[in-house]
Structure formats: structure tokens, C-alpha cells
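In this supplementary section we document a worked example of the pipeline. Step one takes a protein sequence of length 166 as its only input; no multiple sequence alignment statistics are reported here. Step two produces a three-dimensional model, which step three serialises into C-alpha cells for compact storage. The input and output of this example are shown verbatim.
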Amino acid sequence: SALRKMTRANFVSGVGGANTPSFMVLLNSGVSVSSGTNTVIAFDTEIYDTDNTVSSGVFTVPSGEAGKYFFAVNAGMNTGNNIDYVNIWLSKNNQTTIASTNGEAIGIEFRHEGTSSSNQVQSVSGIMNLAVGDTVRVYILHNFGSAKNTATGGRCTFSGYKLIGV
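The serialised model returned by step three reads:
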């Protein structure tokens, strides 16, 4: 008949999906960052990585998974005084500056300015349109005047997942 019995299987067929690949990594060992130097944070501890897409803290879009991705980063410096700035940014295909190509951002940046005698940890998040083989990594830059260590543990994380339905 034209009317079908409503079952859970009928109801959910074709609805939803998985936000994969997805991953979360963190930094357990602080990385020394020279003042005024763009430095990649090589996250060293994997919490999860559904499709083995992260190596040394660099996410690479796997075959068949082009699309829009959401990324989030918590990162910063472990200690500091007389800070002028701390920048963190997500870099598409290893770009060391935030720019745009054909109107599309190739990076997402957060800049903190001011003076503080406490830890400098910021968060940045955003969406990137990625092709197969594109890479995303996290850069940090500071102006403490001397080399300082990055934050560690839950204060220095990088995560992301593929968006569905967009």
C-alpha cells in the first residue's frame, strides 16, 4: 500500500550521518618558541583520530573526504610578563600568514595583546573548505623578548571534524 508502517529503521533511513573524519590531539610536552618566530605546534598526544588523519599535529584531508571542516584550538604560552602579543592561527597548506585566495580565508587567527603576569592561553575556531590532501596545522607567535614554552595538557589542544549537510 501507499502507507508504510513507521518503524525506527524507516524513520532514520537517509537521516543524519557521521562527522568523520574527526580528531583531538594535545601537547603534553612544552615546546620552546623563540620570540618573534612563527612556530608550528607539533601536538604529541592523540586523544582520538577516527581516520588516522593527524601526524605530528598536522591534519591531512584523506581521500574521498573533501568538504567543510570545523576546527578548534586552545594554545598559548605557559608564562609571561610584559607581553606585547601572542598570535595563534590555523594554517591551510602551511601558509605562515593569514590571507585569502579567491575570497576564501586560508587561515583563522586570534591575536591577544596586552600585559600580563599570568599564563597566556587563547582559543580560536572556525570553518575551512578543504580539498583532498590539504593540510591544517597550528602556528604560534609571541613577543616575550626571549624563548618561552607553550602551554601543555588540556590548555593546548587541537581538534576538528568534517561537517555534514553543507
